[in-house]
Amino acid sequence: MKFSPLVQELIDSLKCLPGVGAKSAQRMAFHLLERNRRGGSKLAHSLSKAMVDVGHCQQCRNFTEHELCEICQSPKRQLATTLCVVESPGDVLAIEQTGEFTGKYFVLMGHLSPIDGIGPDDLGLDILAKHFASGQFAEVILATNPTVEGEATAHYIADLAQEYQINMSRIAHGVPVGGELEYVDGNTLSHAFSGRKSYQM
Amino acid sequence: MKFSPLVQELIDSLKCLPGVGAKSAQRMAFHLLERNRRGGSKLAHSLSKAMVDVGHCQQCRNFTEHELCEICQSPKRQLATTLCVVESPGDVLAIEQTGEFTGKYFVLMGHLSPIDGIGPDDLGLDILAKHFASGQFAEVILATNPTVEGEATAHYIADLAQEYQINMSRIAHGVPVGGELEYVDGNTLSHAFSGRKSYQM
Ligand SMILES: [Zn+2]
Ligand SMILES: [Zn+2]
């Protein structure tokens, strides 16, 4: 015996979500069916629209349902000479929320990972090379994650940028603001020390 | 700045799933958009069908897209004289998988919970009373979870069954106190069934 066909199909489909196994999928299906059909129908609608209509921005590769994303369309950013390379759309959002950066982005949608078969082409590095070649950008900020894969990806892109004689910078690693020194891992602390700056009174 | 409208809408919609907060919803949306559009479209399709077409079995309240569920339709069970009352469809599946029980079920779809405003009517106890009144059932097995709410619900149903002079039993042996029925292994559940005792008011 299984659940009724439609319920079983719903449970099976929910398992395509990352981190959702058989038991969670079952709990989700029952919750929607019993307590939130409106939410379930809304999700169905959003999903089917997004899966069909959301593509990648032709300039920065971020998700968008238009040819260009909001940032690439923005007149204020048209003449930006700084390009910030990040791994994911969430990174763009986080950086935008600081209000510190007014240049353009390039979203890799991942990082180099030979084990998973993810190479330069999967990250759109051919498109990135065209941006470098265009002459628009004087500086590229390598803002990939400070992980092994993120560092390797930053290194690969730095090699590429160098061919076009573009200035490169890497976001600073160190003790997070508000963090406590004794709880920061040794590697981060090393970075914090080697990247120390002259103290301004 | 937010994500593009369709992406933001997808993230917001995913938050209707139990246990899914803003960060998980974002991760799920990116995963589907970047790595599994087919899975996402399939989920959209399953969801929209299930939300519209899945209802409750008119006899046992389990989820089904027909008037009666597979078990209630089964000729083998038509003359069953034992009724097993459980909290959720997952419990029915777990009990069916032991192969020990050949009677009928009644699925409460929850338990009494005054704090959440869930009373007897929300659990279909009016329909259950009609089953008791029909004279078909000689015994009711109270198979709600061995939690505080499950015990209270069992007690309430026992009161009801007593009015109709139906024998009551409560599954007992092997189910860990404080545990949830659907997560118990089949062997333990078999023992719980064969070791059931007459319910003491
Ligand atoms: Zn863009
Ligand atoms: Zn039924």
UniProtKB/TrEMBL annotation, chains A, B:
SMART domains: TOPRIM
Pfam families linked: RecR_C (PF21175), RecR_HhH (PF21176), RecR_ZnF (PF02132), Toprim_4 (PF13662)
C4-type zinc finger segments: 57-72
InterPro entries: DNA_Rcmb_RecR, Rcmb_RecR_Znf, TOPRIM_dom, TOPRIM_RecR
Location of the Toprim domain: 81-176
Key words, A-Z: DNA damage, DNA recombination, DNA repair, Metal-binding, Zinc, Zinc-finger
Known role: May play a role in DNA repair. It seems to be involved in an RecBC-independent recombinational process of DNA repair. It may act with RecF and RecO.
Family: Belongs to the RecR family.
Protein name as it appears in the record: Recombination protein RecR
Protein's organism: Colwellia asteriadis
